Amino acid sequence: MIRYIFGVVAAVLALASSLAQATEVASVHIDDRSKIGNVELILNGAGLRTKLFFKIYVIGLYATKKNANAAELIESREPRRVALHLLRELDADSLINALKDGLRQNHSEAELIALKEDIDRMEGIMRAIGVAKPGDLIALDFAAEGTVISFNGQPRGSIPGSGFCSALLKIWLGNKPIDDKLKQALLGG
User: Fold this and answer.
1) CATH of the domain at 148
2) What is the pTM of this model?
């Protein structure tokens, strides 16, 4: 009987421990779980974005279930989240240009023309945010109805439709990601 009670207590403690886990990348705490509305998301992967020798941000990719297939994550209609934990100060122009560069690397000229209205809307949202400082969090929430951009937990704007969600995810998960190692980290590698 005592052995049974200890077994139950150990199982409960193990479950509680697994629910409270978090990941740390470059000294940034990344929650293992997140939510979009009532939908529970789990951390698919996380990594550090660097450029030259500068640490730019830590990124976490959340999905409804773990998935190492980039194409499935890009095309999914399930909710997903990209959380950018900034490590450097970035003005709106720098952030917009980086996102546009990632879009250009993974889309044809015709695709970019089709995305122009969405890109312009994203640019307006980022300009309204202005300067992001180390410690700030930019979240991109992706769902079938569209993309919601939040800054430090506050929604700042949205872009309707699922096409832009997929386009943005290609920045990190596409055939020409901004960083191959970062892509593998986001896929749980």
Assistant:
1) 3.50.70.10
2) 0.87
